[in-house]
Design brief:
Strand order of the largest sheet: 1-2-3-5-4-6-7-8-11-10-9
Oligomer: single chain
Largest sheet: 11 strands, mixed
Strand content: 25-35%
Structural class: alpha/beta
Number of helices: 15
Length: about 600
Amino acid sequence: MKKFLALLLAALMLLASAATAEEIVAQAYSPDLTVDTSENLYASACYGLWTRDIDVDGVQRQIAIYTPQNYEPCCEMLLIFCPAGKTAEEFANECGWPALAEEYGFGLTFYEALDGEWDLENPQNEIDFYLAAAAIIGTREIIDSSEAALYISGYGDGAAVAQYIALNYSSMFAGGLFMGGPAIPAEYYAEVGEKLSYPFAINSDFTLQLDGSYNKDVPMPVWIVSDGEPDQAGVDYWMGVNDVTDMGMKNPYADIYEQNKLSFTESINNKAISRVWLSQIEGAAEYFDPDFQEYAWTNFFTDIRRFTSEANGAMRVGFDADDIGLVRYDIEVKGENRFWYAYAPTYYDGSEPLALVIACPGHSISAELFAQQTEWWRVAEARNFLVVFGQGGRCTSHALSGCISWGTSGDALERDLDYFDQVIAGMCENYNVDTTRIYITGHSNGGMMTGVLAEMRPGTYAAAANVGGMFGASEELPEANDVLIPYFGIAGRYDMGEQGVFEPGKGGYNDIQMRLALNGMSDVVAETKDTGSYLLVTYRGTDQRVPMVQYLSNHNFHHSYTPQYSWMLWDEFFSDFSRGEDGTLYYRGTPAV
């Protein structure tokens, strides 16, 4: 009787929503679409539900991506594995998630079963479907979503598929919601837990496994909603992975099990917010209560981000620009509406000039997310300086999704040189900036932009730090600049383009030679230090005093800009350098020659 009433209630809710909501009609994606950016530089060509065919080992599958009208690039994304027998379009019209996506501005990707049935006997087939789709989504042709805010869910048999994927790739998700569905065999949990985990998905390399991190060691917040008795083997596995205690609390929908405080480590890459929520709801696979979904989105999913870091990723609390205290400044750059965020320490009153760090996000990363990822604002608060988080222009290689990038050549370079000139002028107008201590840093494409600025505007900055953006250096060496500019390059040993390898012929080598040439240091000898965790190469010049060019290769690491880098770069690099009004570089207060 209770189950009948629950189903009746769900049906009535669907009827009510159908009467008030406009029907969602799926459209087929085509690269020939066009987009109008006259009002919004980052506008999408694909608002609404768009289908995309996927080839999975010769089998044609389909996903559907939903882009809300108030979409902004680098948005949060929820993956939804539909119940058996439902197409993405059908489920999008009945589940209620698109309405919530419109309200909060996040993306949805619907995965539908092949011929209406999920292959639960051979889950690897469905995992392969996810990986093939993830590779396509990663190209950002339809929507630019944030890897740090990627969440997974499923309904009915789709919930089992979502769990199989999360078990194998938990380091890619910041949370999972599983609504009903059959139990997964107990032996599968034991088997998958002993496998090496995969690093965070930003590399789009789903084969790379780094040493020292097994699936059973990778926490991932989960919410298991059971229709009847829960899958106890699954509950036990996720509780063990998340290191939760048996001391549960409650919220309106679930019993909450939080991490054991005795094992909590106070560090940046910690498991501070691993947790397990458990609920029992009859008809869970067809439970589409809008209040429930809004609670799940605002209190379970978006509370947490998983940023690129060590092999298992770093889970941290999710902040937005207002939470952090970022101030937005809008400008016009060559006819385009652009902006940046500024952060000033809490007790800043303008009475004394403060140093300024300008931080450039990588390709497809928004200024707001980069502030969350690098936590430069925390360093600024503790060390008393100003920070700018820049926002790139529209990416020409992803013309339809509104993806973000910096221009490092041609007209786009001239555009962004103007952008940075305006940013510095705007900061000097609105804040008391110590113009002798302006520093530039960035990651990936933002690291490439950092390198370009260090070459073309060397007198503006007292030092530059490029993290993970050293894969575009030319073999042709430039002439030396008129002024010296200290330069720090950082990459993971498994970073893109082998930039974490400094040997001749490898990715980082050309960048080293370029920076030495720009500083007139082609005849110096490298000083190396290998700790087993990282390799640091330092070029001090002929006086063996000033560490003018430094490169760090982080062993067993990949493509990431972590808060540890922010603290290190300020304390051990930026704060040592300043520049006089005549362009003279100073190292710890003494002229560097």
